[in-house]
Specification:
By secondary structure, the chain is of the alpha/beta class. The chain has helices at 5-10, 15-25, 46-58, 70-80, 93-104, 121-127, 149-154, 176-189, 225-228, 245-262, 267-271, 273-302, 328-339, 365-382; strands at residues 31-32, 87-90, 110-115, 131-140, 144-147, 158-164, 192-196, 219-224, 237-242, 308-309, 317-321, 341-342, 344-345, 356-360. The strands form 3 sheets. Strands 2-9-8-7-6-3-4-5 form an 8-stranded mixed beta sheet. Strands 10-11-14-13 form a 4-stranded antiparallel beta sheet. Strand 6, helix 8 and strand 7 form a beta-alpha-beta unit. Helix 12 (273-302) packs parallel to helix 14 (365-382) and helix 13 (328-339) crosses helix 14.
């Protein structure tokens, strides 16, 4: 049977992932320093499931609306701005991306994405037969990350610019020059701005900055419930559309057509959204407190030369630079085989630095501190 080339291109396994699978199959217990599943670390809100259970009874009468349950969209508008008519509910932010690609691109078109960046947009683009063009960000200690505005200005012929706010895994909120450069590029090339704000509330060493509601160019602002509630099992995403009114009519019609075709949103979760948004405030606050404690621990243990913890304005990930005693893949493989530690090398996220590793900031503080100490002890031992 013929397998689509999309899947043959997406199915490559790298040496790090292959070795992890081999060790796990052999029964080796690995401590995953990259685990970003909040349900593993007690960060969820039990009342959220109770709210969904209560809404299940109200979902017995099916009243489909392409854009999603009106009360849910009204709650989003009240909290995040705009009007209920500006919002579409989706099954996830990944699905929102796929809708945007379907609306904006034809086969072979390009979208501009940040690098470093989370390896999600590329496979979604590949499934849509769309190419990605990376615009880089650079790190300057101690100030943090800045986007290459010259590269943004030079990007030509792209249908959309994606801005992840804050970046994942960089944790950097988009600054004024970056937004101005992207808006100018979109205006010049008749492209759209896509803002992924799923980590926006989780400020640590920076100040959260919302970009939703940009109206100089066509803008899709994405959000999601699973991050707000630290509950990846409660999938619900949304997009807010804004921009010059003359351009929005055809986009609204196209999004309505896609939404009506799939009708993919789970009604009980959508009906519970107003209550779930209220519950999310406490979850976000508790999670931010943990993130801050863990970043401080990382700096105590891994923050002095020859180690370095990069500035982390927000998000759930810290980037740590370790001494370059060996090729980073060799280091990661040794950490798994000899120390039982699984960690992502920076190149997973297009980080050019050879000694960069990405660590999840979600574990309970005592556990996180132990993981940092084990990582340092192992890397130090490799130097002997």
């Amino acid at each position: 049977m013929h397998l689509s080339r999309r899947f043959s291109e997406l199915g490559r396994t790298n040496a790090v992932a292959a070795e992890r699978a081999r060790l796990e199959d052999a029964g080796v217990l690995l401590t995953d320093l990259t685990d970003s599943n909040p349900t593993h670390f007690g960060l969820g809100e039990p009342a959220a499931l109770e709210a969904v259970a209560r809404s299940t009874l109200r979902a017995g009468c099916y009243e489909p609306d392409p854009r999603g349950v009106p009360a849910a969209r009204e709650a989003l508008a009240e909290r995040f701005g705009g009007s209920a008519a500006d919002y579409w509910l989706t099954a996830s932010t990944s699905e929102a991306y796929s809708w945007i690609l379907a609306v904006l691109t034809d086969v072979g078109d390009s979208v501009a994405i940040p690098a470093p960046g989370y390896p999600l947009i590329e496979p979604l683009a590949a499934l849509a037969d769309v190419r990605t063009l990376a615009y880089p960000s650079h790190y300057l200690e101690p100030y943090g990350w800045y986007a290459d505005t010259d590269a943004i200005a030079a990007a030509a012929g792209v249908c959309a610019f994606v801005v992840v706010n804050p970046g994942n895994p960089t944790g950097a909120y988009a600054d004024g020059p970056t937004i101005e450069a992207v808006v100018a590029a979109c205006d010049r090339g008749d492209g759209a701005l896509v803002i992924d704000g799923v980590f926006e509330p989780f400020a640590i060493e920076g100040k959260a900055r919302s970009l939703a509601g940009e109206d100089r160019v066509v803008t899709f602002a994405l959000g999601g419930l699973s991050k707000l509630l630290c509950a990846p099992q409660l999938k619900l995403g949304w997009m807010r559309l804004s921009g010059p009114e003359a351009a929005l009519g055809p986009l609204r019609a196209a999004l309505d057509k896609i939404a009506d075709t799939y009708l993919s949103v789970n009604a009980p979760v959508a009906m519970a959204l107003p209550e779930l948004l209220e519950l999310s405030d406490g979850v976000v606050q508790r999670t931010r407190e943990r993130l801050a404690v863990n970043v401080a621990a990382a700096r105590r243990i891994l923050g002095e030369a020859p180690y370095r913890v990069r500035r982390c304005e927000g998000g759930w990930t810290a980037i740590v630079d370790v001494p370059r005693y060996a090729d980073v893949d060799d280091l990661v493989l040794r950490l798994m085989r000899e120390a039982g530690l699984s960690v992502h090398p920076g190149w997973y996220y297009d980080l050019a630095s050879a000694g960069a590793l990405a660590l999840s900031l979600l574990p309970e503080p005592a556990d996180f501190e132990d993981r940092c100490r084990r990582l340092r002890a192992a890397v130090d031992a490799f130097a002997l």
